[in-house]
Specification:
Length: about 230
């Protein structure tokens, strides 16, 4: 009987303790999640747009996605990556999806964003390279203007390489450019193969902890290298 009474008292005590704990939990105010800063909101949208572009296979969606990058760049004028991606995807969309009659004004706008990125971070290899890429993307009917743009682009590629010799995208762009130019002007099969090989090798060790840092180009580098190898045989 005593054992029964003792066990009953223990159960009652445990129940009271649990009730007290539950009451304490109920009385504890629920903390609201900390509101996102403007910077965090922009980064979240930028991550979302980048993920959509990387995984989307619908040309119609991609043809409109650059507007999202552009809106972020207009909203956030203090961070080089928002300007960079607006310039990059605007230029890329111009080549892939925009009516050729409007190309000139869109390339000019893409260059504006590239220049803004350079102004915000003058020593960033990626921004310098981007401007060179946009200049080379243009294909004006005026041959002399075309030559001038290519020459300016080559100088920017060289500058980007000096700023960061480990940037794989620099070697990718130099290699691809060499495939489309002759040895007389610094291009040719040998230069293309050498730089594309470097690009593929450097992509293996090119890591950046910032998820918003440019990461494009590895698949294209591998594809271009295989093409260069076939052409060199």
């Amino acid at each position: 009987m005593k054992k029964y009474i003792i066990a009953l008292l223990i159960l009652i005590g445990a129940g009271q303790a649990i009730a007290q704990d539950t009451t304490a939990v109920r009385r504890t105010p629920i903390s609201k999640p900390k509101p996102l800063t403007e910077r965090e909101k922009i980064d979240r949208f930028l991550n979302r747009y980048l993920a959509t572009w990387d995984t989307c296979s619908n040309p119609k969606i991609k043809s409109q996605l650059y507007r999202g990058f552009e809106q972020l760049a207009v909203k956030d004028t203090n961070y080089w990556t928002t300007q960079y991606y607006a310039g990059y995807y605007l230029a890329l969309s111009t080549v892939l999806y925009v009516d050729s009659a409007s190309n000139e004004k869109w390339f000019e706008r893409a260059l504006m964003f590239a220049d803004r990125a350079i102004k915000l971070y003058p020593k960033e290899s990626e921004s310098i390279l981007l401007k060179g890429i946009i200049l080379r993307m243009q294909n004006p009917s005026n041959l002399e203007l075309r030559k001038t743009l290519i020459a300016q682009s080559s100088l920017l590629y060289t500058e980007a390489k000096k700023l960061n010799p480990e940037n794989p995208r620099v070697y990718l762009e130099i290699g691809e450019a060499a495939m489309n130019t002759t040895e007389q002007v610094g291009g040719g099969k040998k230069v293309a193969l050498e730089n594309l090989t470097k690009a593929v090798e450097k992509f293996k060790t090119s890591k950046n902890s910032d998820p918003l840092f440019p990461h494009w180009g590895e698949a294209r580098a591998k594809s271009m290298l295989e093409k260069a190898k076939k052409n060199s045989k």
